[in-house]
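Sanity check record (used in CI):
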Amino acid sequence: MTLHQPDLAALPADLAGFLRGIAAAPPAFGQFPGIGLLPRDLPVPAAQIQEMVSGLAAQFAAAIEDRTAVAGRLESLRAELARQDLAGFIVPLTDEYQSEYVPLRAQRLSWLTGFTGSAGLAIVLRDRAAIWSDGRYTLQLQQQVDGALFERRHISDEPPADWLKSTLRHGERLGCDPWLHTEDGLRRLAAACEAAGAVLAPVERNLIDAVWTDQPPPPLGPVIAQDEALTGRSAADKRAQLAENLQGRGADAVVLTLPESIAWLLNIRGSDVPHTPLPLSMAMVDRDGGVDLFIDGRKLGADVRRHLADVRLHEPAGFDAALDTLGRAKKTVQIDPATSGAYLARRLTAAGATLMRCEDPCLLPKACKTAAELDGSRAAHRRDGAAVSRFLAWLDATAPQGGVDELGAAARLEGFRRLDNSLRDLSFTTISGAGPNGAVVHYRVTAETNRKLEQGTLYLVDSGGQYPDGTTDITRTVFIAGGAIGLPSPEMRDRFTRVLKGHIALARARFPEGTSGQQLDALARHVLWEVGLDYDHGTGHGVGSYLSVHEGPQRIAKLGSPIALKPGMIISNEPGYYKTGAYGIRIENLVAVRVETEQAENGKRWLGFETITRAPLDQRLIDLTLLTPQEVGWIDAYHALVWQDVAPQVDEATRAWLKQATAPLGA
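Expected output for Aminopeptidase P family protein:
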């Protein structure tokens, strides 16, 4: 069989690694890189999946790479606007599941604009258009999106709603796909339209789908069962807890549209999107714990069907009728307005259901990992730390000689990870940024932007792996020495050490139960703030258990979630500093929330963090004069753990390098 071989560098965010694994896939059963463990009895042959995904990705990559086609696509969309008597249309980067990582079919924003970041939104009017993203992608928008076609804007500084208020004209109708916006999101957009005297108009069919003539079909990734030894809880136990939740609230049923919630509830994993083992599907759970799962049956082999024996299986086409059935029966239905498409509420209400709007009941129990999940994550991080340490040792020996570039370094790191046969996939496309590219917070290297790792510069690498027992995410910033340049500049050391001090302050934090991540965020920024510096991203995001590398509801950020941090939650600790045009610095470990004191004087438990990532920090970048004795002690203790857990797994040459890299500071 001949597989299409697309230019991986031309793919949109988070697809290149996925395709790279598929293109090198082994036979039709067993380990299937980029997809995971492929069932022997899958109805669709593995070869067919390979050819389909590779071919579609090649076609999509070519479409995105052809920047000259963007003007034609805009013209086609505007012609469709005229046919439907609309003044404009909103194009968010999401799908009907409100996912962060979306399949090829839902990459509408990339297809329309050429922007390949993982967060963004465009609004196209008949005579002008704009695209928004956050601070992570400011430079990427400038590089990828034609400013003559789209106004490039920061989503916080210049919100889309404000732009609409000043741009729409009285009586105009702005189209939107209600599946791709939450109720709250649509409410804000509708208010902006109303302020301009215009109207927000939901459409039956997405306008991009109407003009995207070679749009890929929905994905057909296989589904597998997740072993209870790894989850620590049976699906039956989780369903019973959810049923109790519904009964306590007086709800008859809950509709789940987040695939990660369904994966967690039913102890299944999928392979419909790159890097995140999601089974794209929707579900309804009744007050007795019964589950109706709406999923393409071609994804389900006999083994997973046996695992789902007490689940009522339906094809996705039956979902609307099932919503109508709930409405006609006058059921009280729980939905999460923050994570489900507004279409859901509109359909249920029209059918006669009573809506109970509250948080997806799977989010919080999913975030609080079981003992088995925590043990699995620790084990995955030990193995992942060995791969990262091998890479750092190789980089230290090879990069100073010249010849190493961003693409090559990312490929070598992935190769070290794939030495672990349990690796299912990367957890996201590796951020591999040399020199000024490191200052692009969520940089994605392409053939056009690929830089050499030059002597005397900084290299930022943010990466992770998906293992059956855990999901990893780690960032290290490394100095590339060589020749006469043996040490980083004083400014580099100052900035790195300030970021490190913020990282340590958060890692050492002790806080009363009930504290949210928003309350802790300033700990990581304080030392940067002292000298007038900051970073334009959150400090910490939740991480799943062989699920999404970005998991809610917890986070650490200036505008973080009000959800209190709870024991068992896994969250990142990743302050940074970015000097545009020069370099970027980020230090990221994952930490698990744990109980430090069972009962203090006020009766509350006190919590803290256990750092579970295992890889050394570049000591050449540390300015000892800026550190307190307690901070030095933390670094030395952390490096002792890295040595203890990683050294037994690596080869002799890496072990010798690791011994030096983890030596006590000042030794």
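Residues 66-211 form a domain with the Creatine Amidinohydrolase; Chain A, domain 1 fold (CATH 3.40.350.10). If this sentence no longer matches the regenerated tokens, the check is flagged for review.
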